[in-house]
Structure formats: C-alpha cells, structure tokens
Amino acid sequence: MQLSDIEIAQSCKLRPIPEIARAAHIGEEFLEPYGKNKAKVDPSILDRTDRPDGKLILVTAITPTPAGEGKTTTTIGLADSLRAIGKDAIVALREPSLGPVFGIKGGAAGGGYAQVVPMEDINLHFTGDFHAIGAANNLLAAMLDNHIYQGNALGIDPRRITWRRCVDMNDRQLRFTVDGLGGKANGVPREDGFDITVASEIMAVFCLAESVADLKERLGKIIVGYTYSGSPVTCADLKAQGAMTALLKDAFKPNLVQTLEGTPAFVHGGPFANIAHGCNSVIATRLARRLGDYTVTEAGFGADLGAEKFLDIKCRKAGFCPDAVVIVATVRALKMHGGLAKTELSAENLDALERGIPNLLRHVSNIKNVYGLPCVVAVNRFPTDTDREIAFIIDKCRSLGVNTVLSTVWAQGSKGGKELAEEVVRLCEQPKNFSFSYPLDISLEEKIKAIVRRIYGGKSVSILPAAKKQLDELTSLGFSSLPVCVAKTQYSFSDDPKKLGAPEDFEVTVKSARVSAGAGFVVVLTGDILTMPGLPKVPAAENIDVDENGRITGLF
Q1: N or C: which end of the chain has fewer CB within 10 A?
Q2: One of 252, 301, 310, 556 is an active-site residue; which one?
Q3: Which of the following is catalytic: 63, 65, 72, 73?
Q4: Burial readout 1-17 (b: 16 or more C-beta within 10 A, e: otherwise)
Q5: Is 290 a residue of the active site?
Q6: Catalytic choice (21, 273, 513, 517)
C-alpha cells in the first residue's frame, strides 16, 4: 500500500537540529532551538564567516494545472541529490500559509520521499512567523484607526485609507467589511477589509529586508492612506515602525529544519506569487549561499509569475542572480494544457501533448532568451507516461538548446534526482548573460507592457481609467522608478484562467495599481485576482484530525 506524504514524514527518524546545524556550518552560538527539530539562526553569522557565496539554483515550473507539477518536491529532491553526489547543498523554501493547508492546494513541504520535516509543524504554525507578521500588520491598522479616532492630527481621509487588516486563513466573508460601528466609543465607521497574511506588504517587506535595521526602515516607508489634500501618510508618520519591528525581530531570523535525508533546509517567509512576489526571504537565501556550495531555491507557481518576480524584483533588490534554472514539467500537466480533462491523462496522447507543450517551450525561451540564464527541464515521470511522450518532450526542448532530465525524487528520494543534480552542476559552470525583462528608467506603463509582451506573450495591455489615474498619481509621487509586481491568475500566461497552453494575441486588463513603498515595488492587479481567497465546497480541513496521542492525520 502506498504511504501518504504525512505517513512517510512521520516514519522518518529526524536528526537533532544541532547535527543539522553542524552540517550547514552553523556554530551553536548562532542557533536558537525551537524544540528538538527546529531552530532559528542568527543572521549575524553572515558577518562572522569568511566562506565565499556558493552557486544559486532556481527551481520554477510550467503554468500549474490540477494534474500537479511537483516543483517543491523537485527542489527538495534536487538538494538531496546534490548532497548524494558529494556536493555541499542547502535548500531554501517559503513557509506554507494556513489558507491553502486548510483549503484546496495543500501545504508546501514537498511530497513523497522529497520532503522537509517535521512537515506537520512546518505546515501548521511552525515557529510563529506568520502570526508575528499578521500581528505587525494589524497593529499598524489599529494605530491608524486610533489616530483618526483621537483627533486625526494628520488629516487622514477615511475614504482613502489603503491599509487593510489581515489573517492567515481563506475567509471570503472578510474581503469587504464595515467597522467602527456601535457608537462613538467604538471608533470611526468606515469601509475596511482583510487580505490573507501572505498578501500583506509586511510579508513582502519581511522577505526583502537585509537586516533588522533595513526591516524597520522599510516598515516606516509603508503608505497606509492619503490626507484630504492628497499627500501620502506613512507608517513612520504614525510612529508605528519601532513597535512593529519589535514584533518581527525574532521572526526575522531564518528557520532551520531538514529534509527526510538530512539536508539542511531554511524555510522562511511566504508571499504568494499570484498576488505578491512569491519568494522566500532574502536573508534566508543569503545564509544558504554563504553556508553551502550550492543553494537550491524555488519561486511560486509558473515561471511567468514566481521566476519573473524572483528575477526582476528579488534579484534586482538583493544584487544576485541564479547560476542555473530548473523548469519543472509533467507529461500529464502538458496534456491538460493540450485540452484533456484530468480523467483522460493516463492514456498516451501525442496530439494533446503537441498542443500543450508550447506552454513549456515559452517558459524555457523566457529563461534562456529573455533572462540569459542556463536552464534544464526536469520532467517528473509518472508510471503512465510513455517512452514516446518523454521522447517528444526531449526532442522539442533540444530544439531550443536545452536538455531534459527525468526526475523520480517523489518515489526514490535523492536516488531519483542524481542525473538532474549532475546536469545542474554542469550548468552552474556555464557562462550566463543575465538581464532583467525591463529597465527601471521607463514608465510604469511601459514596464507592465514589457512583462505582458516579453514574458506572457501577450499583444497589448488595457489600463482601465481608475488604474490609469492611480499610475499617474504614483508617478507624480516619485514611484515610477520602482519595479512592478503583477497580481495575476496562476493558471494562464494571460489574465484569463481558461486560456491554457501558450495563448497569443491576448490583451491583459489592468484594473488597479498601488504602491508597496516599503517593499519597493508597485503592485498591479489584473483580471479577477483576489487578495483574500475563499474556501472550496469541501475544504481540506474537513479531513484533518488529531488522535489522543497528538498524532495528526489527514493533513496530506
């Protein structure tokens, strides 16, 4: 009988966290254990070691489908496989949000025999980082409303408040609210609402900050609304950044855990890539690069979202770039992009594969030709995949000068990823000619158009009047030199989730724009994107339970 992910994780004998720390060259003076199997790592180790930075490997994927691609599983399995062939590797991942864990997508700890553990802890509360981020977000909201209640010395216009509360749960009921009701003593009535914590600008700031001092400075720059005269009001104007930093100072220290095979793993920060920038924290990536010869990290959803934001935002802010990129695909997912239903994926169908493979090829071309990075396609092989289907993918990728490697890390752990690890090591020594998909010295509108045309493959951009007014205002306030973070459906290159494969001649509609001044980018919302998801008809939470011994079941 095939074991579930949680059964595999619970059967693993975890190594004590000090042992994992030693494998990552972390001295005990920098380790703050959270029980036996988790720890925080003091970032000051960066200033206390003379180790050179190692190679950086980015794992991304094709446009996701219900068939699954296995990006996180591949990321973890690749790190294990690199260690299996004698390389000093560390993996750096995002933390899971409770929203997907209890909703429909599931957690983010990998799967099969390529997981980070303790997976239950990682998927449920972990070290409390997201709670700290939510508390900091809501402290700012409370201080904002209290300032208005106490006389509004700054002249904040309640109709132009842009700061929203947050909670790390899928709860559509909270998307739009009216608060401050019940009489004068209970505040000033106004329209309000909640975002999921991973969409909060605090999460973006947390993941892009280089130090506690930088974190506090960025928090102070957050714009919470505008005055009656149209001037922006910042967190610093409310004198909230110091207390917010106090709430975040321990959370800011990266979390150290391990894979099933004992590979050191930093799991830290977790913005979604469809509504935020989709990468783990810069500080965790820096630690992994300094402490290991090879760092394997991932970016959320497909390469048009996570990888684009990793490269155009995170790399631009942090001053590094990947030495190699892995693009994950499955035969099953490509056949779904070719128009097949999920129930039709087991039978060989080269026609559907031919219709769907342009999705993979566009992602490959973007990484290779737009960003100038060496890459490899990793195909997670399923038992129903035929040799002819695999050969078809290999041949198509070869035409772009990119190799394809089969991966079976889900079923075999590090043994199933050794060929991929060897190809990645080879790619890391290849020359790269990295460039961003757009320069910073063009207008915000031109940056949006560059992403739509160069990365998505679209024809044009329609900016609705309200969004045009917002972009013009942001430009007048001096934010035109910032990169853009496009909030878009993860299910298509376009802003229409029904357009599968590699659609062409489509138009992307920009509905609104706002600045995340602390994070340092402009958020552009397209399509019907929601910053507070809802639960499905049958939430995953219905199947999760715990017995009298504290053993969790039904998590995955």
Answers
A1: N
A2: 301
A3: 73
A4: eeeebbebbbebebbeb
A5: no
A6: 273
Per the annotation, the verdict on 273 as an active-site residue is yes
Reply yes or no: is the peptide bond before residue 483 cis, omega within 30 of 0. Answer: no
First to last CA, the chain: 16
Q: Which of 130, 410, 493, 556 is catalytic?
A: 410
Whether 105 shows a pLDDT value over 70: the answer reads no
521 counts as catalytic: no
**C-alpha torsion sign, points 497, 499, 503, 506:** negative
- In sign, the C-alpha dihedral spanning 428, 434, 437, 441 is positive
**Residue type, position 194, single letter:** F
H or E element in which residue 32 lies:
strand 31-33
Asked about 314 being catalytic, the answer comes back as no
Say whether 537 is catalytic: no
Predicted confidence at residue 106, as pLDDT, reads: 63
Q: What mean pLDDT is predicted for residues 254-274?
A: 95
Q: Do the Cβ atoms of 45 and 285 come closer than 8 Å?
A: no
Length of the chain: 556
CB 437 within 8 A of CB 312: yes
Predicted confidence (pLDDT) at residue 108 exceeds the cutoff of 80:
no
With a CB cutoff of 8 Å and minimum separation 6, the contacts of 323 are: 55, 56, 57, 374, 427, 428, 432
CA gap 476, 165 in Å, rounded? 27
The yes-or-no answer on residue 163 being catalytic is no
Q: What are phi and psi of 58, to 5 degrees?
A: -100, 130
Can you give the pTM of this predicted structure? 0.95
Per-residue pLDDT reduced to its tens digit, 142-197 = 999 999 999 999 999 999 999 999 999 999 999 999 999 999 999 999 999 999 99
